[in-house]
Amino acid sequence: MQGNLTALSITIFIILTVVLIGFLSGRDKKVRSSVEEWSVGGRRFGGLLVWFLVGADLYTAYTFLGLTSTAYTGGSLAFFAIPYSVLAFFISYFFLPKLWKVANHHKLTTLADYARERFDSKLLSILIAIVGVLMLIPYICLQLSGIQDTLRVAGTGFINVKFVVITSFLLVALYTFFSGIKGPTYTAIIKDVLVWAIMLFMVVTLPMIHFGGWTPMMDRIVKDAPQLLTIPTDGPKGIPWFITASFVSALALFMWAHAATGVFTAKSADSLRKNAIFLPLYNIVLILVIFLGFIAFLVLPKGTDPRFALLSLIQSSYGGVAQGLAYSTIALASLIPCSIMAIGASNLFANNIYRDWINPKVKPSRLTMITRGMVFVVIGLALLFGLVFPSALVSLQLLGVSGMVQIFPAIVISLFWMNQTREATIIGLLVGLAVTFTVYGTGNSYGIYEGFWGLAANFLAVVVLNPLFVKKAKSSTNPVKEFLFNKKSKEAPLARKGA
Amino acid sequence: MKKAILTILVLLPFVAQLALLPFVNKIGPIIFGLPFFHFWLFLWIVLTPLCTYGIYQLQKSKGGLE
Questions:
Q1: Per-residue pLDDT tens over the stretch A54-90
Q2: Is the pLDDT reported for residue A196 higher than 70?
Q3: Chain-chain contact of B21 with A87 (C-beta, under 8 angstroms)
Q4: Of A433, A463, B12, B14, which has the most beta carbons under 10 Å away?
Q5: Counting Cβ atoms within 10 Å, is residue A388 exposed (0-12), middle (13-18) or buried (19+)?
């Protein structure tokens, strides 16, 4: 496989421009003056910036490469991503504004912070932080393999791919350290504009190049590969899997530390409501992009590595310039989410593992420095695992969503259920994780998504055990509980609708 | 009345995108160049925001949002 010099130069040029903008967005020293400034931009971002930030989280290199590769091998199962993300935003309408209000009022910057204050439990916040960091690092690795594959296709024969991957990630770590959340926000705008333009371009031109248009393409798929267009009714991954995977992933989306980071940057609860209304429209492009996996299935030689389905399709269909723009879009879709993920993971580590557990008396200025410094540790770990032991993380990657969703009762249910107890919530979380890992480990999922079994067990444990501890919870209160439940008369109608 | 509409708007996206999937899992008819299954998913990318918007307006008119 030989790269293309024009494509490679464009890719490198665009990456470097974006890195430069990442640095420039941190010119003002204020962006790194406190954890709140650095990680959630002082909560001053309006609707549009939040849209780009949350969109940047969702539309990663892995989304494009992973979903087209699933479509290439598994057909329409790949479309589970559509109901998943549409419903994720719909569900978020009912709890994010409330969560944001609590976080804003009590100056919280992570979900684990919220759980600690809501339940007066450092144990719970540490558990949530550990789950969050543990699941996020493999996710960063996925982004890393995305850019690595892209550079391999673009630059084989011209550059040392590993060296360039490491350099670009270190540059991203550096600008994240320097500019905080401002870095990925401004660069996310460039990334999203490129994503929309390039993906639309591919969706229009690739069917034309290979079939003479969208309709002839669809006719070909219906005739030659109809099995791609529907979902098996049973088997290990059939309709029940599709439904439960969509639903559980939708509940999990905003449990990810990087998604929560995006949410906490918002300047008002109303901007989150508006985002919840409009964000599903992001999927208009995504649903069409998944069809590119079908094109790959029809036109690429049999035996192409599914991981490279989209990249090989781009390589065999376009000239240097279009290739270059497509590669740089995918590269940016890998680097920018990575920056937000690193901020989310660093924030969890510094606030909820270091401060809550190791050194509670840390000074704010020192905590800010530790949070920022953690970016290098997180990205370093991701590089280490991604490049040195790529296979060690496969399970964690597959289990990421199923693991993350287990904090849903602690974060979301607790916003609406006043008498939810700390003890039941902690046991539920642990039971949920144990069941998820057991189902995955033994392979007995009965055609249902692993995380669904875990979450069901989690809910059951919370509901059954809660009455045992409820007496204590009823008699004690704290500022977060006061804030959530005490102005009941005013907020109750809305709260109940959401629950 | 408003409450009933609200409940319907809350449930509709879930019913359409999860519960009804076994019934829309088919290729024909092809609409706007998309097999029926994909057309259905596409349709709800557009209709879900309308449901959310309806809920938003209803809650706002009741003064439930500050």
A1: 777 777 888 888 889 889 988 898 899 999 999 999 9
A2: yes
A3: no
A4: A433
A5: exposed
State both tokens at A373: 């410094």
Q: What is the CATH number of the domain that holds A12?
A: 1.20.1730.10
pLDDT tens track for A370-404: 888 888 988 888 888 877 766 655 666 668 889 99
Six-digit token string for A169? 């990630």
Whole-angstrom distance, CA of residue A149 vs CA of residue A165? 10
**pLDDT per residue over A274-320, tens digit each?**
888 988 888 888 898 899 999 999 998 888 888 889 999 999 898 88
Query: How many structural domains are present in chain A?
Result: 1
Q: Which amino acid is at A137?
A: I
Cα–Cα nearest to B41, from A291, A484, A17 = A291
Q: Do the domain assignments include residue A290?
A: yes
Q: Are A418 and A486 in contact (CB under 8 A)?
A: no
Q: In angstroms, what separates the C-alpha of A483 from chain B's closest C-alpha?
A: 15
Domain contains A246? yes
Residue B31 in 3-state DSSP?
A: strand
**Mean of pLDDT values over A352-377:** 86
Residue with tokens 């990925």: A184
Q: Which domain holds residue A259?
A: 5-398
**How far B36 CA lies from chain A's nearest CA (Å)?**
9
| Mean pLDDT, rounded, for A95-103 | 92
Contact between chains at B37 and A231 (C-beta distance less than 8 A): yes
The whole-number average pLDDT for the span A263-269 is 85
The strand pairing partners of B31, in sequence order, are B34
